[in-house]
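Team,

Forwarding the record for the chain on the shared tracking sheet. I've put the sequence and predicted structure together so nobody has to dig through attachments.
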Amino acid sequence: MNRNGPIALIFHTLFLGFLLAPILIVCVVAFTSQGYLSLPTEGLSLRWFKAIADNPEFVRAFRDSLVLGAISSTLAVGFSIPAALAIARHQFPGREAITALFLSPLMVPHIVLGIAFLRFFTQIGLGGTFAGLVLSHVVIILPFALRLILAASTGMDRSIENAAASLGATSWTTFRRVTLPLILPGVASGWVLAFINSFDEVTMTVFIASPETTTLPVRLFLYIQDNIDPLVAAVSAALIFMTVGAMLVLDRLYGLERLLVGRGQE
């Protein structure tokens, strides 16, 4: 069995350190007791985490981002499943063109999409609305969900579905009991990736959001234009802690490998 040599181990250590250093620095700065960004800090405090709870704008923006990400990701996955199954299973005229159309938002800069959506939603009366935010986010995150579900659908053995149909299962029962469990890792991965991109989106959202529908990234962007204090670091650290906590709970209850990769060989 091949083992990594000392040079490879050093490289991997430096690489991981390069990836984790910004996250660790943000978490350390968030606990500063000073009224400004400082590292090293003179003392540790939960002052800026308490400031998050005292700022209703950040709490509301976080709630809106969660709801927006959940709805947009669910809709994107709902559209991606039939599209991926049709593209993976059938050969029809325009198949490549349709695939390119679904993936085209990846090639358009988000600032261009933001201006286009702003003009379009203003003309149809959806400017500054939550519905407009949902529609625009579905467009930009659909390619992420589609690519993973398409990868899970391609090469899937259809003999299992045929066996279910031969035993009297209806099309809906076959999809629910056979097809969906087979592509579930792609569906779950696609939903998670779509949610992350929706939650983190700021370039396009800043053109569409209104004071009543401001997401957390947009609120942070507006805040740092006028303020330089550790509150932003505290918000970022809180998001990191919640993400790690959610992953640990999910892994404990269901298993991340089982959800994102599929059942292993028993």
